[in-house]
Amino acid sequence: GLFKIDPFDDIVHLLSGIAAVFVALHSAKWCVIYFKIVGIPYILDAISSLFFSREFLNLDVFREGLGPTNFTVTGLLNNLPHILIPAFAIWFGFFLSKKASYMQTPVKKSK
Q: Distance of alpha carbon 56 from its chain centroid, rounded?
Protein backbone atom coordinates (compact mmCIF):
# COMPACT_ATOMS: atom_id res chain seq x y z
CA GLY A 1 0.00 0.00 0.00
CA LEU A 2 0.88 3.66 -0.01
CA PHE A 3 1.45 3.91 3.73
CA LYS A 4 4.16 1.70 5.17
CA ILE A 5 3.46 1.50 8.90
CA ASP A 6 5.25 -0.73 11.37
CA PRO A 7 3.75 -1.96 14.67
CA PHE A 8 5.55 0.73 16.67
CA ASP A 9 3.86 3.41 14.52
CA ASP A 10 0.52 1.73 15.17
CA ILE A 11 1.12 1.86 18.93
CA VAL A 12 2.12 5.55 18.82
CA HIS A 13 -0.98 6.40 16.77
CA LEU A 14 -3.23 4.35 19.05
CA LEU A 15 -1.86 5.98 22.21
CA SER A 16 -2.17 9.45 20.64
CA GLY A 17 -5.79 8.71 19.77
CA ILE A 18 -6.62 7.38 23.23
CA ALA A 19 -5.01 10.43 24.81
CA ALA A 20 -6.98 12.70 22.45
CA VAL A 21 -10.28 11.13 23.46
CA PHE A 22 -9.36 11.37 27.14
CA VAL A 23 -8.43 15.06 27.01
CA ALA A 24 -11.43 15.91 24.78
CA LEU A 25 -13.73 14.42 27.41
CA HIS A 26 -11.94 16.24 30.23
CA SER A 27 -11.75 19.92 29.27
CA ALA A 28 -10.98 22.51 26.61
CA LYS A 29 -7.87 23.55 28.55
CA TRP A 30 -6.50 20.00 28.38
CA CYS A 31 -7.22 19.95 24.63
CA VAL A 32 -5.06 23.04 24.14
CA ILE A 33 -2.24 21.43 26.11
CA TYR A 34 -2.64 18.19 24.13
CA PHE A 35 -2.41 20.05 20.82
CA LYS A 36 0.77 21.77 21.96
CA ILE A 37 2.40 18.58 23.24
CA VAL A 38 1.41 16.32 20.35
CA GLY A 39 1.83 18.82 17.52
CA ILE A 40 5.56 19.34 17.99
CA PRO A 41 6.77 15.71 17.82
CA TYR A 42 4.42 14.97 14.91
CA ILE A 43 5.75 17.92 12.89
CA LEU A 44 9.31 16.80 13.73
CA ASP A 45 8.33 13.37 12.39
CA ALA A 46 7.19 14.89 9.09
CA ILE A 47 10.31 17.05 8.77
CA SER A 48 12.70 14.20 9.56
CA SER A 49 10.89 11.91 7.15
CA LEU A 50 10.97 14.42 4.30
CA PHE A 51 14.50 15.67 4.79
CA PHE A 52 16.21 12.52 6.07
CA SER A 53 13.93 9.61 4.99
CA ARG A 54 13.74 8.55 8.64
CA GLU A 55 10.91 8.86 11.13
CA PHE A 56 11.24 10.67 14.43
CA LEU A 57 8.33 9.16 16.36
CA ASN A 58 9.41 5.54 15.96
CA LEU A 59 13.05 6.56 16.65
CA ASP A 60 14.34 5.50 13.19
CA VAL A 61 16.23 8.78 12.89
CA PHE A 62 18.27 7.78 15.96
CA ARG A 63 18.60 4.05 15.20
CA GLU A 64 19.32 4.25 11.46
CA GLY A 65 20.90 7.68 11.13
CA LEU A 66 20.12 10.26 8.50
CA GLY A 67 19.16 9.32 4.96
CA PRO A 68 18.53 11.22 1.71
CA THR A 69 15.75 13.75 1.24
CA ASN A 70 12.40 12.35 0.14
CA PHE A 71 10.48 14.96 -1.85
CA THR A 72 8.98 12.43 -4.23
CA VAL A 73 5.22 12.37 -4.78
CA THR A 74 4.99 9.17 -2.71
CA GLY A 75 7.13 10.73 0.03
CA LEU A 76 4.96 13.84 0.14
CA LEU A 77 1.73 11.81 0.17
CA ASN A 78 3.11 9.55 2.92
CA ASN A 79 3.93 12.59 5.02
CA LEU A 80 0.82 14.62 4.24
CA PRO A 81 -1.07 13.47 7.38
CA HIS A 82 2.02 14.20 9.51
CA ILE A 83 2.28 17.65 7.95
CA LEU A 84 -1.38 18.71 8.10
CA ILE A 85 -2.41 17.23 11.46
CA PRO A 86 0.42 18.77 13.52
CA ALA A 87 0.16 22.05 11.61
CA PHE A 88 -3.47 22.32 12.69
CA ALA A 89 -2.63 21.08 16.22
CA ILE A 90 0.10 23.71 16.62
CA TRP A 91 -2.19 26.38 15.18
CA PHE A 92 -5.01 25.41 17.55
CA GLY A 93 -2.74 24.97 20.58
CA PHE A 94 -0.54 28.02 20.27
CA PHE A 95 -2.50 30.57 18.22
CA LEU A 96 -6.23 29.93 18.00
CA SER A 97 -6.51 29.13 21.72
CA LYS A 98 -5.12 32.58 22.60
CA LYS A 99 -7.56 34.29 20.27
CA ALA A 100 -10.45 32.32 21.73
CA SER A 101 -9.46 33.17 25.30
CA TYR A 102 -9.51 36.90 24.48
CA MET A 103 -12.99 36.59 23.02
CA GLN A 104 -14.46 34.90 26.09
CA THR A 105 -16.17 37.07 28.63
CA PRO A 106 -16.20 36.13 32.29
CA VAL A 107 -19.41 34.55 33.48
CA LYS A 108 -21.04 36.46 36.32
CA LYS A 109 -22.03 34.29 39.24
CA SER A 110 -25.58 34.70 40.39
CA LYS A 111 -26.21 35.24 44.08
A: 12
